[in-house]
Structure formats: structure tokens, C-alpha cells
Amino acid sequence: MNNVLPQQIAVIGAGSWGTAIAGLLAGKGMRTLLWGHRPEHVETLVRERENRRYLPGFIFPESLEPVADLALVQGCQLVCMVVPSHGYRQVFSELLPHLLPGTTIISAVKGIENDSLLTMTQVMTEVMEQALGKEQRQSDQIELAVLSGPSFAKEVALGLPTAVTIGCGNLTRVQDLQQIFATDTFRVYGSCDLIGLEISAALKNIVAIAAGICDGLGFGLNSRAALITRGLAEITRLGVRMGADPQTFFGLSGLGDLVLTCTGDLSRNRTVGLKLGQGKKLPQILEEMEMVAEGVKTTRSGHDLAVKLKVEMPILEQVYQILYEDKNCSTAVMDLLTRELKVE
């Protein structure tokens, strides 16, 4: 990208976060395509110039164009993937034939694929190697990156001060991406630790469900602080086992996003936990929600990943049992508190 703002960018996924990112980029004057998978929703976005369903109250900049055809992204130098993890592989597979060499793909999704236990950049790598062959994949010049950090879509859309991290294996490309995304209120730090950014971003949602459960049960701030601290220790253990830099987990994507998601009223994952703690059942909670709470699916993949890698994660284990084995929330908390005493 040579430190020049790209002429055209595509954001794949017209939910709240995708819309906020598209608005941010379009607000800098770059032509930005916002792709949605439902044509009727895209037609509404075109007509109303606002995403009233997922991010109401924010009028699209003139340079933002909603589209329903993935083929239209072919001329884009930068593509930002913002689709739920359970649909990520299919959408990227459909997108891949339209990508040109030199394209940078940024994942802004905080999840781990259930069956493969892969992060989103790992999913993209696998899809490209299967479609193109490993040797061609290594020489096709498609760069993969990650956008992560404490960033509620509504606050980004409002222009409230926010700081995030963009990671890429190519440091020069990281610096280019920082320039593309940065505004006076959206500060962008750089990293080369993709796996650390992705693992911390995905697993913090599980701890947020646990924090919501404690709040729903009426426990106090002591409980929440303990969960955040010990949750961070669990996330770090798994990430380091997967080759991540331990320092990543004390940055914006790790501690920063964990604190936000565990304490913020806009957190969908904390909301799931809150309702569980209040006695509601998971199917009812999910049915009532308009948007995806990634932590529910990530709890299963995170649990399976921890078992596979033999990493002890007691908070994750209890959340898994609550979500998938219908364990009583109070019993789960008591089981955590009465575990064998250890050195921190």
C-alpha cells in the first residue's frame, strides 16, 4: 500500500461492528463498500443510508456504499472481514476468487472456529492453501492481519476516544494499516503477534460471560475483579502454549478488551451471563438477542482447544458446563471457589 490511503476498501459484514468500521474508513474519504449477506437488508441500507437494525442513529458518509455482491470487492486493496466465526469459512471461500494479489485481508472477528479449533487467520490460511495449493499461497502476496482491542461499535461510531491494535507479520504493512485506520479519536497501535491478538480477543468473551453470571447472581465487585484477573491468567496460559508473546495479553487486545467486555453494559457476552445468573435458559436468551454473542460458540471451541493442548482453564471449564451441560450457576461458582488452594 506504500503508505498511501487505498482508493477502495471493502468491509465484509454489515452488523454493528462492520458498520462502525465502514463508517470510520468512509469518514476519512475512502470509498468503502459494506457487504451484507442478505440482499433485503442491503436494499434497506441503500435506501435509508443508516443501519437502523444494528447501529441506529448514524448516517452513512457519502463514500460508504452498501453492496450485496462479493464480486464487487475485486478492485479493493484492503478487505476487512467482520462476519461471525461460524460463517467465516464459507464467506471467505466465496470471497477468495475475487481477491487480487497484493490485497490485505484484516480479520476483525473475535472467535475460534468450533470444529477445526482454528483462529480466523488460520481459517483463511487453510482455505487459501486448499484452493490455491501451498506453494502458490506462499507467493500470492495476500497479506493477513488482525484488528482487535476494546472497541464497542456504538462508541466508535460516536467518535469517542478509542485505542485498538492491528497485527500483521509484515511490520511495514502494520505501519501502513495504522495510517489507514487512525483518526483523531481512533488510535491504532501495531503488533506482529497475530495468534496472541486472536486468542486474547476470542477468549475474553468467555470470561465476560462468567462476569455476567456473577453479576446476575448478585455478587459484588470483588468477584468481578477476581474473575478478570484469573481469567487473564487462563487466557495467557493457552495463548503462550500456542506460541503467542506473553506481553500481548497485557495490552489492548488482552487486558484492555477483557476489562471492557466484563464491565461494559454494551457487552453482549456479559449480557448473556447476566441473564443466565438471573435464571434464564440459554436458548431463550439467544432467541431474544438481535446480534451474535461470539462467546457462546467460542466457549465450546475454547474448551476443546484447552483439552487438546492440556491447558488448565477452570473458569472456562465452568462456563462450558453451564452453557452446554446445564450446570447450575451457583454450583459452578462454588466449585471454582472451593478448588485446591494454590500459589498464584
Task: Looking at this protein, list some descriptive labels.
Rossmann fold, 2 domains, eight-stranded mixed beta sheet, two-stranded antiparallel sheet, 15 helices, 14% strand
Written description of the protein model:
It contains 15 helices and ten strands. The protein folds into two domains: 185 residues, 3-Layer(aba) Sandwich (Rossmann fold); 134 residues, N-(1-d-carboxylethyl)-l-norvaline Dehydrogenase, domain 2, CATH 1.10.1040. It is an alpha/beta fold and 344 residues long. Helix content is 51%, strand content 14%. The chain is globular.
In short:
With 344 residues, the protein is an alpha/beta fold. It has 15 helices and 10 strands. Helix content is 51%, strand content 14%.
Secondary structure blueprint with pairings:
Elements: E1 8-12, H1 16-26, E2 31-35, H2 39-48, E3 50-51, E4 55-59, E5 64-67, E6 78-81, H3 85-95, E7 104-107, H4 120-132, H5 134-139, E8 143-148, H6 153-158, E9 162-168, H7 171-181, E10 186-191, H8 194-216, H9 221-241, H10 252-263, H11 268-277, H12 282-288, H13 294-309, H14 314-324, H15 329-337
Parallel strand pairs: 1-2, 1-6, 2-5, 6-7, 7-8, 9-10
Antiparallel strand pairs: 3-4, 8-9
Helix pairs in contact: 3-4, 8-9, 8-10, 8-11, 8-13, 9-10, 13-14, 14-15
Gyration radius, in Å: 20 Å
User: Can you count the beta strands?
Assistant: 10
Q: What structural category arises from helix and sheet content?
A: alpha/beta
Could you give the order of the helices and strands? EHEHEEEEHEHHEHEHEHHHHHHHH
Shape: globular
The total tally of domains equals: 2
Instruction: Note the beta-strand portion.
Output: 5-15%
So what's the oligomer here? single chain
CATH first level of the largest domain: which class? Alpha Beta
| Distance between the ends | 46 Å
